Amino acid sequence: MLESCTGGLVYSEDLQTCDWPRNVPCNKQNSVESADQENVNIAIESKKDTQPNSREPRKQSHPGKANLVKIEEPEQRPNIEAEILRNIDEEILDSLSPQPSILNTITHGLQNRNSITKSHKDEEKEFRIESTSKSRTQSTSIQNTETSFGDRSHSFEKLNSDIPEIEFHSDTSDIEKSLLASYPGESKHLDDSHVGSDIFYYTEWDDPIYDQFQDYDYVDSDSASDFQAEKEKEAEKPVNKKGEILLDLSRYPKKLPRTTEGGPEHGDPARVCDKAKCQLPDCRCGGPQIPANISAKKMPQLVVLTFDDSINDLNQRLYTSMFHPIRRNPNGCPISSTFYVSHEWTDYGHVQNMYSDGHEIASHSISHSFGEQFSKKKWLKEMAGQREILAAYGGVNLEDIRGMRAPFLAIGGNNMFSMLYEANFTYDSSMPIYENRPPSFPYTLDYKIFHDCMIPPCPNKAFPGLWEIPLVMWNDHKDGRCSMADACSNPPDAEGVYLMIMKNFQRHFQTNRAPFGLFYHPAWFTTPHHKEGFELFLDTVTEMEDVWLVTSWQAVQWMRDPTPLDKIIDFKPFQCDYKERPPRCDNPKVCNLWHKSGVRYMRTCQQCPSIYPWIGRTGVANSLVDDL
Ligand SMILES: [Zn+2]
Questions:
Q1: Which of 200, 340, 397, 434 is the Cys-Cys partner for 364 at CB 3.0 to 4.6 Å?
Q2: How far is the CA of 274 from the centre of ligand 1 (A)?
Q3: Residue 204 domain-assigned?
């Protein structure tokens, strides 16, 4: 529903959220085109030559509103999609809004405004290396069909097996109606818990009134000490309030271990990166330099595929098709990706399925709002709050929720990064980098960011050991650049889409092999030729023996321990041992919960909450952020 969109945004059916395309265009030269048509064609040919590959699993080695700033380019292509979205009548959008348990297949494409790609000019020769890619069938010979992946012989222990199930009712009581009627000037979004004798009424936390008094200034110690104290207090004596869920805080994520001393402290003014002091695994200066002096030919090409926003019936079939078991990495493990999950409209049964299948679940906030002016406390409630929600209802182990992406890529400068540091997140993946030739590797925030700040405010203090997986921008087929792949201008047919993805891939693969990011919203794939072109790309790269489709967290683990191709097959973080994860959620229960003057049907295989989870009331009894 529309009221779920804050900050003056509208709901986009196309994007299935309040998003609008984040597209930072450039028009510096008319015919500049980075496509390397020849090499793309070679890739296609090489694919055709490839024999079918059974890609059987290898035996496991162990058990187991955007502030888009112009940078130097004088002209900008108008952000057409954003304009269209702004002008769409809100009531029409309202009528198009999906319900989580009612399949809504209405879609309206906004992207078919493109024309066919013209001639291309090769600009990349100076960065090119000789391709060493071979078909996987030529070398992968160790196969073992007896080992199954995701062995779940250890049954998943429910965190709250002692808490009785409670029936929920979605009727609107008389008292509720009178409350709604008696506050005509106030928020009409009242929620209640229909449980027991306690009936609580809540005004929406995302009401703009709550944003206005936030302390916007960065203060090193404001909620930090509160938060630490809260963590310690809760860890000592978890209390199970009636009808609420208790998380296992012993699995609260820990900071990455540090092996080197010295360097800047948290909150110091960020200085220019000191390469002598900034050493892996703890620290990494940004830029295109290949880590650990590995030659480009010996570099595994990591491909990091991510999806943003809610996971629900509208996109589940897409993921089933995309992650067909035939698509595997060179070690036989299924390819995996990272889901930056926002709360609203999310089906937590599906979250559990994706997690159980080996994908990474990360935080994309509860309310999906612009956060550039959030206080640190508000960031905590949004991002760490969503981490708790994902753990409570999606069955995701707390320690596995390591990263975040800011909605609309609207990061919150030092407040946001300080929140990440204090809440023991491992990485952020929200900052675009315009420069893409050659592309940058992920880096830590011990020092000053080395690139232009595309969407301010960017951090200018030190956050030691916190990783940034930047969104290295793509060149689209209209000479624009885009940080999210679905904000690119796309060609009108599948082959064109495939070629555009490949030319961007080649800019990584043929230069320094920095991780290649594909950052999508699922709605983009509802256009059939997008999906077709994309899956052709997947088929191409999963046939290449030096290409790995991994999660954001796996990419960070590789950065911390850069491992060349000849040893990569045994690289532990790329194995697929999911024994610690819950089984799939095949029969979710439906929790009927009151939210924003309507009933929400939230599905989960965990315990139903007594209230619709939201900012400041996750439904988690021992929440570390609700009471901040
Ligand atoms: Zn989003």
A1: 340
A2: 34
A3: no
Say which range, 8-12, 168-172, 380-384, has the weakest mean pLDDT: 168-172
Query: How far is ligand 1, taken at its centre, from the CA of residue 223, in Å?
Result: 26
CA of 606 to the centre of ligand 1 (A): 25
Question: Domains in the chain: how many in total?
Answer: 1
> 52 alpha carbon to ligand 1 midpoint, in Å?
37
Residue 194 lies in a domain: no
- Tell me how far the alpha carbon of residue 370 lies from the centroid of ligand 1, in angstroms: 10
pLDDT for the residue 324: 96
45 part of a folded domain: yes
Torsion on CA atoms 548, 551, 553, 558, rounded to nearest 10: 0
CATH (domain of 388): 3.20.20.370
- Consecutive H or E run containing 548: strand 547-550
- Residue 106 C-alpha to ligand 1 middle, in angstroms? 20
Cα 362 to averaged position of ligand 1 atoms, centre (Å): 12
**Centroid of ligand 1 to alpha carbon of 526 (angstroms):** 17
Checking DSSP bridges between strand 463-468 and strand 443-445, what pairing results, if any? antiparallel
How far does CA 558 lie from the centroid of its chain? 18
Q: How far is CA 6 from CA 207, 435, 523, in A?
A: 8, 32, 20
pLDDT in tens, 296-343: 999 999 999 999 999 999 999 999 999 999 999 999 999 999 999 999
Task: Determine the distance separating the centroid of ligand 1 and the alpha carbon of 408, expressed in angstroms.
Answer: 6
> Given this model, what pLDDT does residue 262 score?
84
Assess if residue 177 is contained within a domain.
Answer: no
Quote the ligand 1 centre to 242 CA distance (angstroms). 33
CA of 395 to the centre of ligand 1 (A): 22
* CB-side neighbour CA atoms (13 Å) of 457: 17
pLDDT band at 260 (very low <50, low <70, confident <90, very high): confident
Residue 193 is predicted with a pLDDT of 23
- Mean pLDDT score across all residues of the chain: 74
Q: How far is the C-alpha of 542 from the C-alpha of 322, rounded, in Å?
A: 12
* Ligand 1 center to 406 CA (angstroms): 7
pLDDT tens per residue across span 406-422? 999 999 999 999 999 99
Q: Which domain holds residue 388?
A: 2-136+251-574
Q: How far apart are the CA of 470 and the centre of ligand 1, in A?
A: 16
Averaged pLDDT, 44-56? 43
Whole-prediction pTM value?
A: 0.70
